[in-house]
Structures are given as C-alpha cells and as structure tokens.
Amino acid sequence: MIAQQLINGLTLGVLYALLALGYTLIFGTLSFINFAHGEVSLLGAYLAWFAIARMGFAVIPACIFGIIITSVVGVIIERVGYKPIRTAPKLAMITVSVGFSYIVQTAIQLIFGTQPHEFKVISVASWNFAGITINSIHILVLIVSIILMVSLQLFIHYTKSGRSIRAISMDQDTAGLMGINVNATISLTFAIGSALGAVSSILMGMYYAQVYPMMGTSIGNKAFAAAVLGGSGSIPGAMLGGIMMGLIESIAGTVLNTQVREGVAFVVMILILIFKPSGILGKEVVKD
Amino acid sequence: MALLEAQHINMFFGGLKALNDVSLQAEEGKISALIGPNGAGKTTLFNVMTGFLVPTAGKVLFRGEEVQGLPAYKYVEKGLSRTFQNIRLLQEMTVLENVQLGCHHNMKQNLFDELFISPRCRREENESRESSMEALEFVGLGDLAGEKAKNLPYGHQRKLEIARTLATGAEMLLFDEPCAGMNTAEKAQLSELILDINKKLKKTVMLIEHDMRFVMKLSDTITVLAQGEWLAAGSPEEIQANPKVIEAYLGTKRKAVGYHVGD
C-alpha cells in the first residue's frame, strides 16, 4: 500500500515540481509571485486537448503546439502586464498577476467550455510488481520530468542564457551594464517557466485523464506552496518541494483518509516554514 | 580623435544640478583622468557616459555616434565597459563566470544551439572560457577562477572587475576609483596593470581617482570638475599649475583630507 502511494506520490510530486519551477524562476528574476502561472500553464493542457480532439493532431505535435503557444502567452503577459510596472511596488505586480489568473481562467472557460473534457490520449498499459501497479503514465511522467529537471539544471549552470538568468536574478543593473540584455533574459525566463508549466499540465491531464477549468488554480496553488516550501528562487528547492508535496499528499491520503490529504500537505508546509521561513533550500536573505 | 566625448551634459535630479554644462573628450589610445573634490559629479558623469543615467540635456558621442539614451547593455556592444566605485560583482557566481558574463554580447548562439548543444554553442562556450581565463591571467587572478567572487579580498575584487571589462573586448574602459581602499604596494601594482592595459592591449582608458600621485603618474590628460561644473582640462603639468584647480582643492582640503595636488 505504502509502496503504491510512494509511486503515485512521486508521480504527482514531479508534476508539482515542474510547475513549481516556473514560480521559482520568475520569483528569482523579478522577486514576485506570479499567480497567473497555474492558469497559464493549464492552457498547455487545453491547447493539446483541443489540437487532438478538434484539430485532429497526433499526440506529440499536439503537445508541442500546446507548449509553444503557452510559452508565447507567458512571454506576452510579461511584456504587457509586468514589464511596465517592474519598478513599481511588488504588490502591484502580484495584484496584476492575480488579475491575469482570472482573465486566463475566464478565457479558457469561454473558449473551451466550463465542462471537464476527457483527456485520454495515450493507451495505458499497466504492470503489476508484488502488488504495486505501475502504468505507462507513471513511467512517462517520471521520465519526462526527470529529463526536464536535469536539463534545466545543466542549462542554468552551463549555458550563456542560463548564466544570464542567474546574473539578472542576482543584480539586474550590474548584469545590464555587463552587456546582458535584461528584457530579453526576463522574457526567456517566462518562456522557459511557462513551457515547463505546460508540460506539467499536459502530463497532469493525462494522469487524471481529464482537463477542467479549475485545474490550473488547484495544482497551481500546490505548486506555488511547493516552491516556497523548497525555497523561493531555488531551482533544486522547487524540485524538492514539489516532490515532497506530492509524497505527503499521497501518503496522508492512505494513512489518514482521502478527505484530509491536501490539508495535511499544507500543514507540513506551514510547519516547515515556521521553523525555516526561507524554505528548505532557500538562502537566509534579508532584503533591504 | 576623440573616442568618447561628452557634449554640454546637464544632469538634474529634481532641483539638484549634479552636472551643469559639462563637456570632455577622451582621446583614442590615451589614459585620461577625471578628478575633482567630493560631490563634483565625477561618478554622475561616468554614469551618464556608460548608459546608467540618461542626461537631462547634452550628448554622449562614441566614435562620433550619439549613444545617450540607449539601454545600458548596448554600450558594451558599442565598445564601452566600466568598473564601479562600489564594487559590483555577482557575488554568488565564480570568478570565471563573472568574467564570462562580459563575453556574452559577443556570443551569437541562440536558444536552440543551447538546447541541442550545437557545435557553435560548444565552440563559443570554450572560446568565452579561454578569453575569460586570459583576462584573469592578465590581471593576475588566473588561479582563483573557480572561487566564488564574494570570497575574494577587496583588492582582488577590484581586479576582477577590471578583468570583466577586458573580457568584453571593449576598446574604451572606464574605471571608477580603481585603487580605492588599496595600500601603497597594491596601488603601484595596479598602476602598472593599467599602463599595461593601455600600452599592451591598446585600450583607451578613462579613470576617476582621488590619489593624485596615481593620477599624475598615469594620465595623459586630466579633466577637473568642481560642484558639477567643468573647471579645467589639460596635461598633468598644466593641471598642477592651474590656480583654479589649486583653489578648488585647497578650498575643500580641510573637509576632505587626502587630496594632495602635485604631491
């Protein structure tokens, strides 16, 4: 039982982690929580569903289509909504992001309808090992997520763009004076964050075999909590936080009962933050 | 010919006139200095000339082309790079990474090169590492490349900033108080380094410095500012003999100990 929940929890956890990476990347570069990230990411799943169900795309092209458009939408929202108020108090940006979360959610309902859509896009095979059921979606989610997380770490540390992202997250002005195009780098951060979010929502749609308009908010909130739990701005922190949220949720669902599973995950988050407010891997930074 | 030129710069902050109709020229291949008592507007002028501030009025010309108002990163592309009075390094990055940032504007790779680790991506990354190491070795920090910037002692951090300007490939380097906080031996070493940068690497240098011995030894030409206004310009000998300059310094000498004109 527990072993089964570990598999389920880990699968859910890496999906939260992928989404949490978007929150943490954007927090790292602009120091604000982008509350629209969950909804924007959900666009990825809806677009993939739409491409398959209504436009007759094959699965992989449909997913790529969803990821690219979501990425573009993320960048456009940054340019239109956040860039003009980048130097304003952070509360303004946070509020604008809450606004965008409702706008995107409403747009999803208008365009794709308020009813859940079935999202069964791959044939699911499952295997039994000593009472543990593993299906092809577990495997797909784990492989894709792990590849993306490792690639992101390599990208951030060993490429020019990655170095630029780290530089502007430390000191935008200095990075600019060193010849780094700050606006382009921020756009890139939004593009990467939104693309990872889109992948997460597509895989989440496959995992639950459906997409529904409130999905962005519900998984977005957990991923946001995971990012803070792991340490805002820390990439390994977001990964760790996401996986912890998924595991706690699944195990609490079995050991206690399914009604309290989400509550327990947040109780653990609050307890950790009380003892380590900067998050598990967050730096103890006192901002002036 | 003047490589960098400021023409009739006004820089007002609200009612404060930080710079009032200031002009200066930096000749190609020379070392020029900007001096003046505290609050004269030297750093403000540096900020205007490197894109950190947009002047209220006036023009900044680089190779005869107007550059004021461009975003800061464009100045590096044009060939202008600087260091800071209060050191600005990316503290959590390694020494090498800090220098590599200076190379970024020369790297043509795009996101797809990076995602698919294309040959161009690998080549440029290697080139940037090599040229960054060269710059580090030039300033004498070659063996500290892997260290985090925040772990370097103060004098080394100043040199690291200089290495970063070298790695940009810029032909004009502006150093804002490069030897602030250094002892006599370190200053002597630094003045050798700046002379090497000028003579061996053929860079045009402009610097702000309070240490008059340092300025007089290095500079080909000196511009003096006082209270936001242009006061004088000329060779070190001319400046030392200029009564207006002496007066400006003597007038503030009691408040700001440590200025020795012609010392």
From TrEMBL, chain A:
It is a multi-pass membrane protein. GO terms for cellular component: plasma membrane. InterPro entries: ABC_transp_permease, BCAA_transport_permease. Its main location: membrane. This is Branched-chain amino acid ABC transporter permease. The keyword Protease does not apply. Keywords: Amino-acid transport, Cell inner membrane, Cell membrane, Membrane, Transmembrane, Transmembrane helix, Transport. GO terms for biological process: D-alanine transmembrane transport; L-alanine transport; L-isoleucine import across plasma membrane. GO terms for molecular function: L-isoleucine transmembrane transporter activity; L-leucine transmembrane transporter activity; L-phenylalanine transmembrane transporter activity; L-valine transmembrane transporter activity. It comes from the Bacteria. Belongs to the binding-protein-dependent transport system permease family. LivHM subfamily. The chain crosses the membrane at residues 12-35, 47-77, 89-112, 132-156, 177-203, 223-248, 260-281. It is found in: Cell membrane.
From TrEMBL, chain B:
GO terms for biological process: D-alanine transmembrane transport; L-alanine transport; L-isoleucine import across plasma membrane; L-valine import across plasma membrane. SMART domains: AAA (SM00382). Residues 4-252 form the ABC transporter domain. GO terms for molecular function: ATP binding; ATP hydrolysis activity; L-isoleucine transmembrane transporter activity; L-phenylalanine transmembrane transporter activity; L-valine transmembrane transporter activity. Keywords: ATP-binding, Nucleotide-binding, Transport. Gene3D superfamilies: P-loop containing nucleotide triphosphate hydrolases (3.40.50.300). GO terms for cellular component: plasma membrane. CDD domains: ABC_Mj1267_LivG_branched. It comes from Lientehia hominis. The keyword ATP-binding applies. This is ABC transporter ATP-binding protein.
